[in-house]
Write a structure and sequence with these properties.
InterPro entries: NT_sf. This is DNA polymerase. The protein is of the alpha+beta class. It folds into 2 domains: 6-126, 2-Layer Sandwich (Beta Polymerase, domain 2); 132-272. It has 12 helices and 4 strands. The chain has helices at 6-25, 37-40, 61-75, 91-95, 105-114, 132-147, 150-157, 166-182, 193-200, 209-219, 226-254, 259-272, and strands at 29-34, 50-56, 84-90, 116-120. Helix 8 (166-182) packs across helix 9 (193-200), helix 8 (166-182) crosses helix 10 and helix 10 packs across helix 11 (226-254). It is globular and about 55 Å long.
Length: 273
Amino acid sequence: MTTTEPAAAAREIAVEAAAAYQEALGERLIGVYLLGSLSYGGYSAAASDIDLALVLTGIGDADRSAVDETTKALQERSPLHRKLSVFWASLPALREGRDDGRFPALDRLQLADDGRVLVGEDVRAEVARPQPSELLLESAGFAIAVLATDEVTAEFRSPKRLLVDKVWFTKAVLFPVRFLYSGTTSTGRAANNDEAIDWYLVQPDAPAASLVRLAREVRAGHPLEPAEVEPELAAGLVPLYRYYIEAETSRLRETGAPEELVAAFADWAKRLG
C-alpha cells in the first residue's frame, strides 16, 4: 500500500479488484463500479465493506464461476481484501429492473444514484430504479431472514458477539435506523448511515438515542468497550427493534404486502418480548 489513510487504502483494493474482474471476464464485462460508502462518503475502517458492482453483457455458468473464483482469490490476499462485497448482473436485466446474478434492489438503486466507474463504460443511466414498494419488501425480507432468527434474537437479549465485534455491533444497531429513514424518502433513495442517524436522533418518540450515538462513534473509530456497550444494549436494543417492527408492520400493511411477511414481523415482536 502507498497510503495508510483508510478510505484511500480501500479504494486501492477496489481498483485492484476491478482489474482482476476485467482480466477474468474479458469482453463480457461492461463495467466495474464503486458502491457504498466509498462512493457516496462516510467510509468507516471499522465497519464498512468495499462494495463493487459488475455489469456484464449476459450471465452464464462460466460467468458465475469466474466471479466467484476471482472474488475468493481476492479476499484471500489480506484482511482488507476480505471486506470485498461484490454485486453483479447483466445489463439487460438491470434495464428491466431484474436481478439475474447477485444484485439486490437497494444496491441497484445505489448504482443508479451514486455508483462510480472504475473500469469500462458508464451505463448507470440505463439502470431501472426500483420502486419504493420493492425496496420495502426487500428490506423487510432481509430483516426477517437475517435479523429475526432465533439465534440473533437470543443475542439481542443476551449479547456476547455484540460486545466484541465492531462490524456486527454497528450493523445491528444501524440497520433498523437506515430502514426506518429509507421508508420516509419519497423517491426511495438509498439512505446512508450518517443521514439516517441524523434523522433518527431528532425524532421525538425514537428510543435508544444514546445507543445510536454510540454506534455512530464506533463506526468513526471509537473503541468497542464491553463495559460501555453492555448497558447501552440492555437498555436500548430491544426497544429500538420493537420501534422499527411497529413502523415496518404499518408500512407493510399499507402497501398490501404478503400476509406471511406481516405475520413474520408479528412473530418477531412476540419473540423479542
